[in-house]
From TrEMBL, chain B:
InterPro entries: 4Fe4S_Fe-S-bd (IPR017896), 4Fe4S_Fe_S_CS (IPR017900), FDH_Electron_Transfer_Unit (IPR051555), Formate_DH_Fe-S_su (IPR014603). It comes from Nakamurella leprariae. Residues 23-53, 153-184, 185-214 form the 4Fe-4S ferredoxin-type domain. [4Fe-4S] cluster 4 binds at C174, C194, C197, C200. This is 4Fe-4S dicluster domain-containing protein.
Length: 360, 345
C-alpha cells in the first residue's frame, strides 16, 4: 500500500491530496478487485506522517476485563433470581455467588484503571445522562449493593457452622430475609449493567467502536447471556441447569447474529476486527462459543457424571468465548484509533458525498 | 442533554448568566512561520512539563519534533513539505524557478568582473552535499550542477490547538464534572476534580485531550490535560500566552463572532490574491461539532495537517445509542425469563 505520506527520494513528503489539483477521478478511491491477492483492498488517503488523528483510549486490560465481568455478573443475577423463584437451589446459589464475585472484580478493575484511583468517589459528584460512564456508575451503585447482599446471604451457607449464630446472628438473619428481594432487585437492574457497557465504548470517536453503535449492545448482552449461562452450567446441578443451558444457547445465537450484522454495517472500520490481536481474539471467540454451545446441547443428553463434566467443560468454553469477544472488540477499537485510515477515509467519503450532493 | 442539541452560545447554554462574549482563536496558517513561539509560551505560562508520552526525539517529520497535541503539548506546530508551488509566489515565468543555485552563478560573475580569477576572491567554492539541511533552494541538488528545472515546493505550517467545540464530546462524557464550560464558552479541566478515568481521550474527535503520564513528581500526572485557552489570563483581561507570543499574528485571539468575520475577510483576500486552495476549517456553526471556538485557515485538506476532515461529536448519536441499549437490555430480561419457562427435568 502506498501511503502518500512516505517521503520521496528528495525527502519531500508527498502529502498530495490538495483540493485544488485533485482530479475528479479520485472519487471512489477504494480499488475494486484484488490485484495483489490481498485480503483487504487498499485505500488511498492522506495523513500527517501516518500519525493518528484521534487518540486511542488510555485504558488497559482492566476495561475489557470489566466488560466481561459485568456481563457475567448481570447474567448470573438474572439466573439466580429465576432459580430462586422456581426453586432451583444450586443454580440460585451459584448465580448469586458468581454475581458477587464478578461485580467485586469489576469494581476493582474500574478503580484500578483510573489515573487517580484515590479520587474514585468523584464519580458520584454528578449524574450526567450525556456520559455513559456516569450513567454506568449510578447503575453499578444501584446494582452492586443488591447483588452484594444476595451474594452475602449465600456466603453464610459456606461458613463453618461453629461460627454461628453469635455474635452476628442478627445480621445473618437479616441477610437471609433480604436475600430474595435484593436478588430480584439485582436481576431487574442487571440488564442495564450488561447493555450500557456497549454505549460506553460506542460513545467515543474511536472508529471501530462508534461505527458499531447500532448492534454492539446486542452483541454484549448476548455475550453476557452466554458467559453467565456457561458459568451456570459449571455451578448448577444437572437437575437445575436447564435455564442456564437455554440462556447460554439464546445468548450465543443473539451474539453471533448481531456480530455478523455489525460487521456488515461498519464498512471499513470492521477491518480491525479481522486483523492482528483483535482478529485472533475474534476467531478464538467464535471457536470457543460454537464449541461451548454444541457441548452444552450435547451434554444435556449425556447421563450422570459424564454429562455433568461435559456441561462444565462447555461452560468454561462459553466463558472463554465471551471474554475473547470483549477483548477483541476492545482491541479492534484501539487499533482503529491508532491508524488514521479509519478516521480519515470514512469522513472523507462522507464529506465528498455531501459535496457531490451540493450541500457541503 | 442540552449539550447534544444545543444552543449556539455555549456559555449561556451551560447556565452562565450575563456571560461575556465567547472567546476563541483564529489561526491563520498562511502567515505561520513555524517559529514555535506559541508552543514555548504555552509551556512556560501553563507550567506544562516535558512531554513524557512523546519523549525528546527527532521524529523525521520536517521541523516537527513535537509530534502531536497531548496532555503535555497544548500547542503543536505542524510542518508539511509539499512538491507544490507556494501560493502567491508565481512570477508568471514559465519555468520559475529554474537552473542552478543563483549564488554560484553570482560568485562566478563577480570573480570574472573583478579579477578574472575565481580564487582571488575566495569564491571558488561550490556547494558540497553533506546530507544536511542546506541553504540551496528547494529541489536544488548539490551534486547536480547541470541545468535542471527546480521542483515546485511549499512548506505548510500550522499551529494546532484544542478546538473548544460548541458541542464538546470531552465535556459531554466526563463522569465527574471535572471538564466544564467556562463563562467564555471555552472547555477547561478542573485539575482537582478529574480522577483520570480517561473517557474524554477517545471521545475527542480531534485527538486533543490526553491523560498525563510521568513519574509521581510530575505536575497533574494521571489526569486529563489540555489547552485552557489560558483561563487564568482571560479572567484577568489578558490575551492567551500563545497568541501574545505569535510574531506574525497567525494566532489571533478575540471574540468568536469577530474572529469569524476576520476569517471570512482574510479568506476572500487570499482567493483574490490567487490562493484558491485557502479554506476555513472549524468556523462553520453547522458542522459536526457546532463550530469550533478555535478555528483555522488552511491551505490544503484538513487531513494533510492531521485534522479530521469531517469531525462529528460522538454524543450526537447518544440518544439513539441509549435507545438501542435499552432494547438490548429488554431482550436480555425477556430471554432470561423465557429460559425459565421450559419444563423441569
Amino acid at each position: 500500500m502506498t501511503r502518500p505520506t512516505t517521503p520521496d527520494s528528495d525527502g519531500i513528503v508527498a502529502a498530495a491530496a490538495g483540493s485544488g489539483d485533485r482530479p475528479p477521478a479520485r472519487r471512489g478511491r477504494r480499488r475494486r478487485g484484488n490485484p495483489d491477492n490481498q485480503v483487504v483492498p487498499d485505500v488511498e488517503f492522506t495523513s500527517y506522517y501516518g500519525r493518528p488523528v484521534v487518540k486511542a483510549s488510555p485504558w488497559e486490560a482492566d476495561i475489557p476485563a470489566y466488560l466481561f465481568l459485568g456481563g457475567v455478573a448481570a447474567g448470573s443475577s438474572l439466573l439466580a433470581a429465576g432459580a430462586d423463584l422456581s426453586g432451583r437451589a444450586s443454580l440460585r446459589r451459584g448465580g448469586r455467588l458468581a454475581a458477587l464475585a464478578a461485580i467485586s472484580g469489576s469494581l476493582y478493575a474500574l478503580v484500578h484503571d483510573l489515573g487517580r484511583p484515590e479520587r474514585f468517589l468523584n464519580m458520584l459528584r454528578v449524574a450526567k445522562p450525556t456520559s455513559p460512564m456516569s450513567v454506568g456508575t449510578w447503575i453499578l451503585t444501584a446494582y452492586g449493593p443488591m447483588a452484594g447482599a444476595a451474594g452475602a446471604a449465600e456466603l453464610r451457607g459456606l461458613l463453618p457452622a461453629r461460627l454461628g449464630p453469635l455474635p452476628l446472628g442478627w445480621a445473618s438473619g437479616l441477610l437471609g430475609a433480604l436475600a430474595r428481594p435484593t436478588g430480584i432487585a439485582a436481576a431487574l437492574i442487571a440488564p442495564a449493567v450488561a447493555s450500557y457497557t456497549a454505549v460506553l465504548l460506542t460513545d467515543t470517536a474511536t472508529p471501530s467502536w462508534h461505527e458499531a453503535h447500532r448492534e454492539l449492545p446486542f452483541v454484549f448482552v448476548g455475550s453476557a447471556a452466554a458467559a453467565s449461562g456457561g458459568l451456570g452450567l459449571i455451578t448448577a446441578s444437572s437437575a437445575d441447569s436447564g435455564p442456564a443451558r437455554r440462556l447460554a444457547a439464546g445468548g450465543v445465537l443473539l451474539e453471533l447474529v448481531a456480530e455478523r450484522r455489525m460487521e456488515r454495517s461498519m464498512g471499513i472500520t470492521a477491518e480491525p476486527l479481522h486483523t492482528g490481536t483483535a482478529g485472533r481474539l475474534m476467531r478464538a471467540a467464535t471457536a470457543c462459543t460454537v464449541a461451548g454451545t454444541v457441548g452444552a446441547v450435547v451434554s444435556a443428553l449425556l447421563p450422570g457424571r459424564r454429562g455433568r463434566l461435559a456441561s462444565a467443560a462447555s461452560g468454561v468454553a462459553l466463558l472463554a468465548g465471551s471474554a475473547c469477544t470483549r477483548f477483541a472488540v476492545f482491541e479492534a477499537g484501539q487499533a482503529s484509533a491508532r491508524d488514521p485510515k479509519y478516521t480519515v477515509v470514512p469522513q472523507r467519503e462522507r464529506l465528498d458525498r455531501r459535496r457531490a450532493a451540493g450541500s457541503g | 442533554m442540552s449539550d447534544l442539541l444545543g444552543p449556539r452560545d455555549p456559555a449561556s447554554g451551560a447556565g452562565w448568566d450575563d456571560a461575556p462574549p465567547r472567546k476563541g482563536f483564529f489561526t491563520d496558517t498562511s502567515v505561520c512561520i513555524g517559529c514555535k513561539a506559541c508552543e514555548v509560551a504555552c509551556k512556560e505560562w501553563n507550567l506544562v512539563p516535558a512531554d513524557q508520552a512523546a519523549g525528546l526525539s527527532m521524529l523525521g517529520s520536517s521541523y516537527d519534533n513535537t509530534g502531536a497535541l497531548g496532555a503535555s503539548t497544548w500547542r503543536h506546530v505542524a510542518f508539511i513539505e509539499q512538491p507544490k508551488r507556494a501560493g502567491g509566489q508565481d512570477l508568471n515565468l514559465p519555468l520559475f524557478p529554474v537552473g542552478p543555485s543563483a549564488s554560484d552563478a553570482v560568485n562566478r560573475a563577480a570573480d570574472t568582473a573583478m579579477t578574472g580569477d575565481r580564487s582571488q576572491l575566495g569564491t571558488d567554492t561550490e556547494a558540497v552535499d553533506l546530507g544536511m539541511p542546506g541553504f540551496q533552494l528547494p529541489g536544488q541538488r548539490a551534486d547536480r550542477k547541470d541545468e535542471r528545472p527546480r521542483t515546485d515546493f511549499r512548506w505548510l505550517m500550522s499551529s494546532d490547538v484544542c478546538k473548544h467545540c460548541t458541542h464538546a464530546a470531552c465535556l459531554d462524557v466526563c463522569p465527574t464534572g471535572a471538564l466544564f464550560r467556562t463563562e467564555f464558552g471555552t472547555v477547561v479541566v478542573q485539575d482537582d476534580i478529574c480522577n483520570g478515568c480517561g473517557y474524554c481521550v477517545p471521545a475527542c474527535p480531534f485527538g486533543v485531550i490526553d491523560r498525563r503520564v510521568g513519574d509521581e513528581q510530575t505536575r497533574n500526572v494521571g489526569i486529563a490535560q489540555k489547552c485552557t485557552l489560558c483561563y487564568d489570563r482571560l479572567g484577568a483581561g489578558h490575551t492567551p500566552a500563545c497568541a501574545q507570543a505569535c510574531p506574525t499574528e497567525s494566532i489571533q485571539f478575540g471574540d468568536v463572532d469577530e474572529l469569524r468575520e476576520r476569517a471570512a475577510v482574510r479568506l476572500a483576500t487570499l482567493h483574490e490574491a490567487g490562493v484558491p486552495e485557502a479554506r476555513l476549517y472549524g468556523e462553520d456553526p453547522e458542522d459536526g461539532v457546532g463550530g469550533a471556538g478555535a478555528f483555522f485557515l488552511l491551505l490544503d485538506e484538513p487531513e494533510v495537517y492531521g485534522l479530521p476532515p469531517d469531525p462529528v461529536v460522538t454524543t450526537r448519536d447518544l440518544p439513539s445509542m441509549w435507545r438501542t441499549a435499552a432494547t438490548a437490555a429488554g431482550a436480555l430480561l425477556a430471554g432470561a425469563a423465557v429460559a425459565f419457562l421450559g419444563r423441569r427435568r
